[in-house]
Amino acid sequence: MDLFIPVFLAFVIICLQPGPYLIAMTSLALEGRWKSLIIFWLGAATAGTCIYFIVLTSFNLIPDNFGFIFMFLKAAAAVLFVSMGVSSLNRSFKETKKASLKTQERITSSSFVQTMSSSFILTLSNPYVISFIFAGIPTITGQTSFSIIDILIIRTAVMSADVLVWSSLCIPLLFLRHFFSDTVLKKMNLLSSLIMIGIGIYLFITMLLPVFSNGELYTTGLLGFKT
Predict the structure, then answer these.
(1) Stretch 33-47: mean pLDDT
(2) Number of domains, the chain
(3) Does any domain span residue 224?
């Protein structure tokens, strides 16, 4: 519990910070795509688990210029989000109000892969995640050496905070759709699609500008530049 509680409380606060992940999750909830919401979270959770285990088990072995890989991952995430937004815009609104209220959604193999991949790559390409592990975890836990058990406890605390925050945000949004007319739902779907495209554009811009000048990768030295 000495590891769990501090990490859990810290990550609850971190989850509430605005960013592409928060916007994507709430947008999917407003659109009523609860299946995609679960798939999106699973992709992010899987990527996050990989990052935590890799970084915390090899804390002093990561090369100086490792951060360059995040630039390419962020570019891939940008393409995926734009693709998701465009696909959603092209999808005609054919549901009846009854179907809309039930938030029915058909998940095809292609949409599953697209949603899972977008959240997976978004998490891998997020410099804030690795910066938090490098700077936040040692500060919160008071240690820089972690056993497998320690990492499991830390990751469990992070995922527990994640589930708590996103359930509190997304479940009410899913139920709010019951009170909206078809016209409002159509506008919400359009807004959600535009938000997805906006996230892609935002990721592409942040890949080119803040990462070099004053972003997390630059300030933590992961690009190999000295600050």
Answers:
(1) 88
(2) 1
(3) no
Q: Label residue 161 by pLDDT band (50, 70, 90).
A: very high
* Within a domain: 109: yes
Phi/psi at 18 (5° precision): -60, 145
**225 in a structural domain:** no
Asked if the structure places residue 110 within a domain, the reply is: yes
Degrees, nearest 5: CA angle 9-140-11? 30
Domain that holds residue 45: 4-219
3-state SS of the chain is: CCCHHHHHHHHHHHHCCCCHHHHHHHHHHHCCCHHHHHHHHHHHHHHHHHHHHHHHHCCCCCCCCCCHHHHHHHHHHHHHHHHHHHHHHHCCCCCCHHHHHCCCCCCCHHHHHHHHHHHHHHHHCCHHHHHHHHHHHHHHHCCCCCCHHHHHHHHHHHHHHHHHHHHHHHHHHHHHHHHCCHHHHHHHHHHHHHHHHHHHHHHHHHHHCHHHHCCHHHHCCCCCCCC
Torsion of CA 150, 152, 153, 157, to 10 degrees: 140
Q: What is the pTM of this model?
A: 0.64
pLDDT above 90 as % of the chain? 12
The CA angle 159-196-45, to the nearest 5 degrees, is 15
